[in-house]
Design goal:
Elements: H1 13-31, H2 39-66, H3 72-92, H4 96-139
Helix pairs in contact: 1-2, 1-4, 2-3, 2-4, 3-4
This protein binds fe (ii) ion (2 copies).
Length: about 150
Amino acid sequence: MIEWRDTMEIGVSAIDAEHRHLIEFANLVARLPKGRSQRLATMNLLSDLRELFRQHFEQEEDLMFRVEYPKVDKHLLMHCTMMTQFDMCLQNSEHDSSVLDTLALVTDWIVNHIKTEDTSLASFIFQRRQAVALAKAKTKPKAAPKQVAGKR
Ligand SMILES: [Fe+2]
Ligand SMILES: [Fe+2]
């Protein structure tokens, strides 16, 4: 189980909301009672979690292309490797213990990834926004000087 911490926020609200949701969902799976009778329910939730990861990566990759993030290839490869690992774990999850292993893998990975790669993406976005704002401010026409009443 992971507790969401403010230090995990990267400052891009849409992405933060998805990260928070991913972690809440992973915690939900972790809280399920363990045992053979619960295995199917757990596996179904893990599949749902996989789908949430896929959707999140898609959103994030879309954003990276829109902002022309220079490290997009590296970041994309990490997402892709994660999905492959997730799939392999799901296929191997024949015992309850490996379900827990899958969860541990997923949760450790997402926390590290948020704190490093996603934070780096967010920094780039902020710097880019600042540069755009600065360029706009520089090209803004200067206001005409106010005329003082009574003076010509
Ligand atoms: Fe990412
Ligand atoms: Fe992310």
